[in-house]
Amino acid sequence: MLKADSIKPLASFATLGELEAYLSKGTVDVILCQICPACDAGLLLLSVLNRMHKSGQLEQLPSLFWMGETSMIALARPGDVSCASGLPAIGKTAWIKCMGGVPMTALESLARLARAAGIHVEILHQGDAMALNDALRAALLIHTKIDAVPAQATFDALAEDELINALTTGEGLRFVFQPQFDLLSRRVVGAEALVRWKHQRFGDIPPSLMIPLVNRLGLDLLLFSLVEMWAIKVMLALKHENCQIPIAVNASAKTLCTPQFAERLAARMRGVGLSTRLLKLELTEDVPEPDELLLSAALTAIRAKGFQISLDDFGVGAATMNLLVNISFDEMKIDGSFVRALGEYSSSGKVISGLVNWARLMTANVVAEGIEDESTIPMLHRLGCRVGQGYALARPMEFDDFMMFMKKQK
Ligand code: C2E
Ligand code: MG
Ligand code: MG
Questions:
Q1: Are 127 and 194 found together in one domain?
Q2: End-to-end Cα separation, the chain, in angstroms
């Protein structure tokens, strides 16, 4: 597939040692690694990359694609009675999805850890050319170099000026809205505002690349103000249609801890005649706030003004027990990775049920994110998720499309 896409130079290695020697000689953009039962090199490669990077042997961390065949493997549990065939007894068996013998959940959590350590990891199904193309495109965006900039320049360095320009002039920026639904009645009960950025040379930049750069450049408050402006625009248009649903805007802890944040935001809502209950702030955890006391005070001040606070990506974020015990949230958004795994792994249902119970104990509402599969909606409802968001329900929409969608709901 890579040859057909005329990706070159291409090199292939049978052992980790050979690959390590090659990596120490030059820059590599992407490593494709087969995940198969007889070989754990793909998994061990993470620590090799980490070590080489830390010791300065790597100019650039390559992206790592794990590829393999997936299969369902029966997990025998203690106490299971085996049938005569030697297979675990039907009804007592937990089936787990594996790639090359490794449970997908384990691969996914390893990939999350790797991403946190700065190594871009993708998990791809064998033969899925479209997914491979998308992953290559994203990896090349990360690693693109042009002649005018130093060789080790990353996407971040290349895009800095353009991002500053986009945020100050609005050029190339768009704002989209994804509805949230009551999972039983399918009524729209809210929406989340999301930013989109089209780079002049690189095209659409996924927020997963853009937001870390925004944070690194300290432009988070500026981005927040732009999204908030669009959220207010939508709220006013909805009010005109006699529809008052809350609109959620993502904000890092750093943004929410800005001095006078709550007062200024409340004054802006008052200024346009909107109730503060209509704006929800989703605490994203991409920049964890080390000073939990400050964060706790800031969130309390924001809630005191009537805004709702939601904890985004509940279950995978960096929220410590301390934070969860000391701060009450109006809402917790169960991360899409659990929701997408529902129906594939029996453990996801248990995790979701645990998160829902936790949220209930904290008297917070629950939103299930990333619902891609219609068939998981009744399961989510049974597990206690009353509200959900995801492609199976509605994709994020431009302002006009969203307003049209909302009018049709009436
Ligand atoms: P998030 O806040 O958890 O947003 C939900 C993400 O899930 C969005 O990705 C949305 O497009 C995507 N999504 C919705 N339904 C589905 C689904 O069924 N399947 C899958 N796979 N994904 C779904 P997006 O827009 O790419 O944003 C990614 C993250 O970037 C967001 O995660 C949020 O943390 C951050 N982000 C996006 N827009 C903004 C923004 O305006 N400000 C800030 N600070 N962060 C933003
Ligand atoms: Mg969010
Ligand atoms: Mg989320």
A1: no
A2: 48
Of 30-34, 213-217, 262-266, 284-288, which one has max mean pLDDT? 262-266
Q: Regarding predicted confidence, which is higher, 91 or 201?
A: 201
Ligand nearest to the CA of 194: 1
**Pair (173, 217) in one structural domain:** yes
Residues 271 and 397 in one domain: yes
Our separate counts of H helices and E strands in the chain read 15, 16
Specify which residues 175 forms β-bridges with: 195
Virtual torsion, Cα 262, 266, 269, 275, nearest 10 deg = 110
Give yes or no for a contact between 264 and 304, defined as CB atoms under 8 angstroms apart: no
Residue 229 in contact with ligand 1 by CB distance below 6 A: no
Residue with the nearest Cα to atom 8 of ligand 1? 194
Nearest CA to ligand 1 atom 28: 207
170 alpha-carbon distance from chain centroid = 24
- Identity at 176, one-letter amino acid code: V
Q: Of 95, 121, 144, which residue constitutes the final position of a domain? A: 144
d(CA 106, CA 162): 38
Task: Please identify, among 118, 144, 170, the residue that sits at the C-terminal boundary of a domain.
Answer: 144
Measured in angstroms, how far is the CA atom of residue 258 from the centroid of ligand 3?
A: 22
Q: pTM for this structure?
A: 0.72
| Extended strands (E) in 16-104 | 30-34, 63-68, 70-75, 94-99, 102-103
For residue 302, the model assigns a pLDDT of 96
200 within 8 A of 169, measured Cβ to Cβ: no
- CATH number of the domain enclosing 261: 3.20.20.450
CB 190 near ligand 1, within 6 Å: no
For residue 57, the domain's CATH number is 3.40.50
From the CB of residue 98, how many other CB atoms can be counted at a distance below 10 Å? Answer: 21
Angle, vertex CA 125, rays to CA 393 and CA 140, nearest 5: 90
How many Cβ atoms from other residues are within 10 Å of residue 237's Cβ?
16
Count up the domains in the chain and report the number: 2
If 0-12 CB within 10 Å is exposed, 13-18 middle and 19+ buried, where does residue 223 land? buried
Rounded distance from Cα 282 to ligand 2 centre (Å): 6
pLDDT at residue 287 greater than cutoff 60: yes
Q: Which domain holds residue 74?
A: 3-144
Give the list of residues 6+ apart from residue 278 with CB closer than 8 angstroms, or none: 235, 244, 245, 246, 247, 269
